[in-house]
Design a protein that fits this description.
- The protein is mostly helical.
- The chain has a domain at about 40-95.
- The chain is about 80% helix and about 0% strand.
- α2 packs antiparallel against α3 (about 65-90).
- The longest helix is centred in the last third of the chain and has 30 residues, at about 65-90.
- It is flat, with a radius of gyration of 19 Å.
- The protein starts with a helix and ends in an 11-residue tail after the last helix.
Length: about 100
């Protein structure tokens, strides 16, 4: 990979990080649950990207790339599943309890 391409990728990564922090810090606390649900759906795209990157690595016989791709698939799946569990738990706090329910 050329040095210019690596610098461009690092630049995009740093700008995305700053933009993410700036956007999240401006969100009111009441909107965090809907925002989390939306980001979990978007995180599913990460799994698709990780699967395609891993498939490309397996076709080019890149063992290290395949290992990193598999790790990316596992971590993205944990992110999506954990995000949905947290969202479900947070939304459960707003459900009305039955009168006969002693919990």
């Amino acid at each position: 990979m050329l040095t210019g391409e690596i610098l461009l990728l690092v630049f995009v990564f740093v700008i995305a990080g700053f933009l993410g922090v700036e956007l999240i810090s401006k969100v009111p606390s009441q909107l965090h649950t809907p925002l989390m649900s939306g980001t979990n759906a978007i995180s599913g795209i990460t799994i698709v990207g990780a699967v395609s990157a891993t498939a490309a690595a397996l076709h080019t016989d890149g063992t290290l790339s395949a290992i990193f791709g598999f790790a990316a698939i596992v971590l993205a799946a944990i992110n999506v599943i954990g995000g949905y569990l947290v969202t479900d738990r947070m939304l459960g706090m707003f459900k009305k309890k039955d009168k006969g329910d002693k919990k």
